[in-house]
């Protein structure tokens, strides 16, 4: 243990500024949606759900069934390491989706504007990466309630 007192999850959530709680809530929603989408793909189509993509991307997309819920658990428990984990997962996910969707995007640029797919994944990924540094800094500090004690 690092010598710091242990705090309950509620204390850690309450110890964050409101903007950080909102950002983490959006992380939870986004990664839960990703978990559900990838699980549904695998339930419907099995391990070949992503056969349209190169093999390394197929492995990543299937692996997101583990990585997305891992982020949910870490963020839900207000663990600072959840933020860089979320950022890394989203960089990989967005990059893989752009690679996999590039042929369709070249053929039909309106592919980007679909309400489910590349655009929302990209926007969420940008949000996660843009908020990761300030969010990590505020989460790495002890809760405000501990500072008053």
How does this model look, in words?
- The structure is a single chain.
- With 149 residues, this protein is an all-alpha fold.
- The protein contains six helices and no strands.
- The chain has helices spanning 9-14, 18-45, 55-76, 82-107, 118-140, 144-148.
- Helix 3 runs antiparallel to helix 4.
What keywords describe this structure?
149 residues; mainly alpha; 74% helix; 6 helices
Quick rundown:
With 149 residues, the protein is mostly helical.
> Which structural class matches the secondary elements?
mainly alpha
What is the distance, rounded to the nearest whole angstrom, between the alpha carbons of the first and last residues?
A: 20 Å
Number of strands: 0
- Count of runs of 4 or more consecutive helical residues: 6
Percent strand = under 5%
Note poorly predicted spans: none
Helix content: over 70%
Biggest pleated sheet: none
> How many whole angstroms does the radius of gyration measure?
18 Å
Return the average pLDDT rounded to an integer.
90
SSE pattern: HHHHHH
